[in-house]
Amino acid sequence: MLETDRMPESEPVVERAAVRPGAEWSDATLTAAERETLAGHRGGVVWFTGLSGSGKTTVAQQLDRRLHAAGKRSFLLDGDVMRDGITKGLGFGREDREENLRRFTEVAHLFAEAGVIALVSAIAPYEDARERARQRIGAARFVLVHVATPLAVCESRDPKGLYKAARSGKIPDFTGISSPYEDPPVADLRLRPEDGDPLAQAEAVWRVLERRGFLSV
Ligand SMILES: Nc1ncnc2c1ncn2[C@@H]1O[C@H](COP(=O)(O)OP(=O)(O)OP(=O)(O)O)[C@@H](O)[C@H]1O
Ligand SMILES: [Mg+2]
Question: In this structure, what is the dihedral angle of CA atoms 39, 100, 148, 213, given to the nearest 10 degrees?
Fold first, then answer.
């Protein structure tokens, strides 16, 4: 192992934690509220759910830029990017999808605790998994955006050629084709193609964040 590969100064932190009585330790814990005061806005999770090709990543990227330009701390947790790392190796059967969403939920929750607005773009086809995310993160900190682009429109866009492959049977368990997508019965916002281009759709999400008090402390 290279010298530079070592975690710098990790031992003293562990020692301090070990000798602190519990109460003192919890008094010393920096709270989410303190972090939000420093950030100047609230931490939270904006979850974009919808079919592949609906525009989750595109709209979330626009919102990320918009928030950044306005001095808000945000971070995009994207399904495709996460599958390169924290959810690597998970497939698309029901169990693996549940585990995929559990990991998204946990990571997004930590970002929210850190006073950051986490933008999640992940298909999240099951209502019970989305509901678990809401419970875990806390309803006050959770915003669900249903990118409700109809299947026919997603399929006509098909930027990754996935629908074509799924229709010819090359991709099993493909959401909307051979695996279900449960429309969220309740959402903070539903985006449809007639709502405009991705920038206009991101603006609509911004207004929800403003209305729900996420953009200030
Ligand atoms: N409001 C919009 N109007 C027109 N085209 C859009 C709109 N939003 C997204 N698109 C286009 O739709 C395509 C799919 O978008 P995107 O990759 O963001 O989908 P996604 O929901 O993230 O899909 P996946 O789940 O496969 O990652 C892109 O080519 C994008 O430019
Ligand atoms: Mg995407």
Answer: -20
Rounded-to-integer distance, Cα 124 and Cα 51, Å = 9
In a domain, 1, yes or no: no
Residue 162: inside a domain: yes
What CATH number does residue 132 fall under? 3.40.50.300
121 lines ligand 1 (CB under 6 A): yes
Write out the chain's pLDDT in tens, 217 residues: 343 444 333 333 334 444 455 555 667 889 999 999 999 999 999 999 999 999 999 999 999 999 999 999 999 999 999 999 999 999 999 999 999 999 999 999 999 999 999 999 999 999 999 999 999 999 999 999 999 999 999 999 999 999 999 999 999 999 999 999 999 999 999 999 999 999 999 999 999 999 999 999 9
In a domain, 60, yes or no: yes
Structurally, how many domains does the chain consist of?
Answer: 1
**45 close to 143: Cβ distance less than 8 angstroms:** yes
What is the CA angle 53-58-59, rounded to 5?
110
Range(s) of the domain holding residue 154: 31-211
Instruction: Tell me whether residue 100 is in a domain.
Output: yes
Task: Output the residue whose Cα is nearest ligand 1's atom 27.
Answer: 52
**Tokens representing residue 214 in the block:** 């996420």
pTM score above 0.85 = yes
Q: Is 197 in the pocket of ligand 1 (CB under 6 A)?
A: yes
